[in-house]
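Hey,
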Amino acid sequence: MTDQSSLNRFSLAGRVALVTGSAQGIGRAIAIALAGAGARVACADMRADACAATAAAICAKGGDAIAVTTDVSKEADTTAAVAAVKARWGALHVLVHGAAAADPSGTVVEYSLTDWNHAIAVNLTGAFLVSKAAIPLIAQSGGGSVVLIASQLARVGSARRAVYCAIKGGLLNLARAMAIDHAGERIRVNTLSPGAIETDRMVLRFGTMEAARQALGPLHLTGTLGQPDDIASAAIYLASDASGFVTGSDLLVDGGYTAH
């Protein structure tokens, strides 16, 4: 029988969260899940209409959310996003960085420098910029949790995914270093690494979701792709007191992809 006090450790009531990349897919699912756990949520994304739709979906269910149009590759935007959170709620306890530019397929010989730099700017430098802006407010709020969305490909290579593998591997070590640097401010920092998840990105890469399932499903021990809510559930754990003894770690939610 589950003790109610254990369940309460997953509650985010009274917490404020900022989620980047919240317009669709994993980021949207995480924003909605955090709100469902009780958090007030700032939904940040450069796609203003879709970002606003996520915030509206939260509010329609009785939650408290705002949309903040944000290009995480621009320091002025990340600073403004955190300022909007402070102006609305006066505090910040949870940061989830899920913003990610679509990475081109190719080898390092084939990439253009422009494509390489753009992917790095959003996915990795964006993590730096939003963390730089958010961490002082999280510290002022008494501490909290930073979650950087990485990937199972942070741990293993994949053909024609050089820039993606480099970015996601970088996020793992960035989180470890940040965990060390900010432990004294009661800030935990972890990465969350999904396997292949059924989002629009899969359709962009494979043409159809069915083609993605056929190509990638057998690479997972489950034989299937994951769902955005699978990652959102893990994000609640990392954001909440349930993971109070977890920092500098990577949580794999990859259907067994890296087990073989």
